[in-house]
Amino acid sequence: MEIWINPACSKCSSALSLLDAENASYTVRHYLTDPPTAQEMEEVLRRLGLEPWDIARTNEPAAAELDLASWPREAAHRARWVEALAAHPTLIQRPIITADDGSAVVGRSPDAVRSVLRQP
């Protein structure tokens, strides 16, 4: 299992605490200093079952600089969104947890984090 975190994020700290309490085995990825590639973003989005605009943090300064709010949220512009997330990792919702069984969640709540811990 891997968890993408920003150390300053309170939701990330809560998710890590819950994983520790559950004795989960995981690898931490500080995605701001080790940003994902566009290919990794595509894989995570596939596992999440989401589109790139679904996990974009539109209130970040980078979003304003890119004028992200004006970008169409449709398939024809999907690659542009993926590239933006990879190029500006502060735009990525956090934490993202990917499990070895192929499941993934945006772990913003205890229930979301627990869902990735459930056995199939």
**Taking Cα atoms only, what radius of gyration do you get, to the nearest Å?**
14 Å
Biggest beta sheet summary: 4 strands, mixed
Look at the helices and sheets and give the structural class: alpha+beta
Tally of DSSP β-strands: 4
Coarse morphology: globular
- SSE ordering: EHEHHHEEH
Overall helicity: 25-40%
| Gap between N and C termini | 15 Å
Chain oligomer state: single chain
Look at the structure and give the mean pLDDT. 93
Strand order of the largest sheet: 2-1-3-4
Task: Determine the number of helices (DSSP H or I, runs of at least 4 residues).
Answer: 5
In the predicted model, the low-confidence regions spanning at least 5 consecutive residues are none
Strand content: 5-15%
Main features:
single chain; 120 residues; alpha+beta; 4-stranded mixed sheet
Blueprint of the fold:
Elements: E1 2-5, H1 10-21, E2 27-30, H2 38-48, H3 61-66, H4 78-87, E3 96-98, E4 104-106, H5 110-117
Parallel strand pairs: 1-2
Antiparallel strand pairs: 1-3, 3-4
Helix pairs in contact: 1-5
